[in-house]
Write a structure and sequence with these properties.
The protein is an alpha/beta fold and 397 residues long. It is built from twelve helices and eleven strands. It binds S-adenosyl-L-homocysteine. S-adenosyl-L-homocysteine binds next to strand 8 and strand 10.
Length: 397
């Protein structure tokens, strides 16, 4: 599933149903059966998690061979898989030279949340965020975004076994889901990669595919205001806002996109967010930075700002990273801050940091990828492709 290089087979992962059907028709499936074939492949890919065509046992052998010849189903390659003392898992994934990104799974008693990346690197340069120190390399494709969910479900054995398969009922995946929630809170700004995020999430929430309710999917933005209404209408997931400051002078510095879209405009977009209600509240994320944004006056202003918006406020203890210019607020200060917010009637859970020991907590994700000149990247890709075909040619047939 490398980005298209001259001889790579196109991936079927991440295509919507219509595009999947069109791809099969173009590969020679008779128009009369393209619909049914696309439905079968879709079901294998997204209900049973088939990693290859050979697994699709109700498709004729020669049809499987045709698919194999024309298309790829490859997942991202797992570079490292780490498990934290608290059970949080982090995967570093790779889909091509210099294209590396991270995905984090956070198990809790009543749910399992997968934190998914939308870009390699980021353009936003938020001062407290580790990813913000990595320049944008590129947007992830729908296949790469969805691939993160597939990888996690593979690793957690979270697929439904095909009907009639031996041991189906004994499989954990058949009884209790492991990935119950997806949050677009990994590397990158999802609203700067709108189309690809939308394509991937539509498969995550499709009742005949990964079948997560839209209520269990949350998109987090630093505040790309013009895209917020579209996110509501076209994606329809929950919304989280990385607010982090209550005055423009400070937000301009720590979340620089604020210079383009100031707090008042951001909050107006939240007031108008389609589907927000007391049952579907907008989450405001607020990272606690010692001596920077954690005064009790800030807490009061926060409450005043979100008045009238169905809101939840998530106070996030700052997670440190090498060279970070901030410290986490003292615990006693976080408690006082939280009390003001709670008294105003907002549930304000202080998010317990998860996975800090493996650098998997909020704002700690980063990969070594750097943007290369297109010419250098293409040279490297073609060298890899040549090495691969030489390797395949050496393999016994
Ligand atoms: N670009 C999107 C998606 C990233 S979500 C956004 O900004 O919302 C990641 C969340 O972790 C954001 O709320 C981000 O502000 C927060 N975060 C970043 N660095 C952090 C850190 N060092 N400690 C705690 N939270 C952090």
């Amino acid at each position: 599933m490398a980005p298209p290089s001259a001889d790579a087979k196109p991936s079927l992962i991440g295509l919507d149903r219509a595009a999947l059907k069109a791809a099969l028709a173009a590969a020679g499936v008779a128009p009369g059966s393209a619909n049914m074939r696309a439905g079968q492949v879709w079901n294998w890919l997204y209900v049973h998690g088939a990693p290859d065509f050979a697994r699709m046992s109700n498709l004729a052998k020669d049809f499987r061979a045709l698919l194999e010849e024309k298309f790829s189903l490859a997942r991202p390659e797992i570079v490292t898989a780490q498990v934290s003392r608290d059970g949080t898992r982090k995967w570093l994934l790779r889909t091509g030279p210099g294209i590396e990104f991270e995905t984090v799974y956070i198990p809790e008693e009543d749910r399992g949340t997968l934190c998914v990346s939308s870009q390699v690197g980021c353009t936003l340069t938020c001062k407290f965020c580790h990813t913000g120190t990595q320049k944008l390399v590129r947007n992830l494709t729908p296949a790469e975004i969805l691939g993160q969910v597939l990888i996690a479900k593979d690793a957690l054995d979270d697929w439904s076994a095909p009907r009639g398969a031996a041991g189906a009922s004994a499989r954990a995946g058949a009884t209790q889901r492991k990935v119950t929630n997806v949050v677009m809170m990994g590397m990158g700004e999802p609203l700067y990669n709108f189309d690809n995020v939308k394509a991937a999430l539509s498969i995550v929430t499709d009742g005949g595919a990964l079948a997560l309710s839209k209520r269990r999917v949350t998109l987090s933005t630093a505040g790309v205001v013009p895209m917020i209404p579209r996110a509501g209408h076209e994606i329809g997931s929950g919304l989280a806002i990385s607010l982090h400051a209550v005055r423009d002078e400070l937000r301009d510095v720590i979340v620089p996109i604020n210079r383009k879209y100031p707090i008042a405009d951001l909050l107006q977009a939240c007031r108008e967010y389609p589907g927000a209600s007391n049952a579907r509240r907008i989450t405001f994320e607020y990272v606690m930075l010692k001596g920077v944004n954690d005064s009790l006056a800030d807490a009061k202003e926060l409450v005043r700002l979100v008045k009238g918006i169905p809101a939840k406020i998530n106070l996030i203890p700052f997670n440190a990273w090498p060279g970070a210019p901030y410290e986490c607020s003292d615990w006693s200060q976080i408690e006082k801050f939280a009390e003001i917010v709670n008294k105003a009637g907002y549930a304000s859970p202080v998010r317990t940091p998860r996975g800090r020991d493996i650098m998997a907590a909020c704002g700690q994700l980063k990969s070594e990828s750097v943007k290369q000149r297109a010419s250098a990247r293409m040279a490297q890709e073609s060298a890899m492709a040549q090495a691969q075909s030489a390797h395949l040619a050496r393999m016994p047939h």
